[in-house]
Amino acid sequence: MTTNRTGRIGFVSLGCPKALVDSERILTQLRAEGYETVAEYEGADLVVVNTCGFIDEAVDESLAAIGEAMDRNGRVVVTGCLGARPTTVTDAHPRVLSVTGPHNYEAVMSAIHQHLPPPHDPFLDLLPPQGVKLTPRHYAYLKISEGCNNRCTFCIIPGLRGRLASRPIGDVMREAERLVAAGVRELLVISQDTSAYGSDLRYREDEWHGRRMETRFQALCEALGELGAWVRLHYVYPYPHVDKVIPLMAEGKVLPYLDIPFQHANARILRLMRRPAHAQDTLARISSWRHTCPELTLRSTFIVGFPGETDAEFEELLDWLAEAQLDRVGCFKYSPVEGAAANALDDPVDEDVKEDRWQRFMQVAARISEERLAEKIGRRMTVLVDEIDRDSGAAMARGPGDAPEIDGRVIVEGGHGLGQGMFAEVEITGADTYDLLAVPAGPDSNPL
Ligand code: SF4
Fold this sequence. Notes:
- This protein has 448 residues and is α/β, with parallel strands linked by helices.
- It contains 12 helices and 20 strands.
- α3 links the parallel β4 (76-80) and β5.
- α11 (311-324) packs parallel to α12.
- The relative contact order is 0.08.
- The model is unreliable at 129-134 and 444-448 (pLDDT under 50).
- Bound molecules: iron/sulfur cluster.
């Protein structure tokens, strides 16, 4: 593995405030996907030029900016208002990599992915590999901090990305507000360690709309909950203060959804992994969270076959999972990452044992998922439509318990009139292992 694994992107933004919002949206997504933005053309792997084409002078300025980026870098993706007249761009600069029009943020991201794909590593990346292919305008990732202060032994992120560096809360809130104003209906809060947010700043106060607020996990959840969008929390560790956001979920301020990478349940393995909050009694915590917020969906990831994991320790993990009744679960077979401290641990687990444990783990997880989804049949639910299936006409939607790309879907049959980015009330009519079936329950859908 190389340490220089992120793509480096130069960005030139021209034009009016609307173009600026587009630029911010693209930059937000780039940052969430792990790209690095650089100030120099020469150090960039690719340059994005967001153009203006409003008047002749702006066209000239845009063409000059593209020319400069071509001369000094040579790999240029053009977007923005001038992109609505692609031949004006390609006549002047035939070797640009791609030209897309204004407010077509998905097309720019797709061009960037095509020419500078972000590598994916399940142990390093915050987003799923598919997540970078399809990021429709109705949801957006909101990255609240970089780096991590933990030292999990299987992970090299602190070495690669440095110590925790939280963004001041006013900064995060202004970005979230802009995203919602631009049509985003769901904010996916991400970082390496979301519940540690602000600890590096000693929870310093910052301002948002004249309000003084601490840069702190709970304050951020409260403020995001005022924006009128769905707020979904990822990568939360079970520190005691997490208990304080569960009532916000019960009140409907943030989605009743927690993505907590538990990784294991056995105390010795968690210690060997040096996991944060490993001493917490997680079963008791889960039970109390569900008591406060019965609708809570819990997602987690696990590692099986960690060095030294015995049969008994694996069985303990299976029993724990059966008792915890986690709704959504992913599992990796342990594999060494170059530079990780866990590589020095004794007793590697045989590959066929890892495979067998993974199969058994996933069987238990699938059974739990099936049973928990079946309990939802007959209930009403608000869903957000991701897309319409052209062949069947069904709406592919998600409920509060489904994060995009990684969780299941709610398939709404007969959802004529529904479209991407609409909320809809549905009644759940069926379930399989990971997905729900539904029909529209009322007329109160609203367009993006
Ligand atoms: S919490 Fe652990 S696994 Fe997550 S980034 Fe930090 S060191 Fe890596």
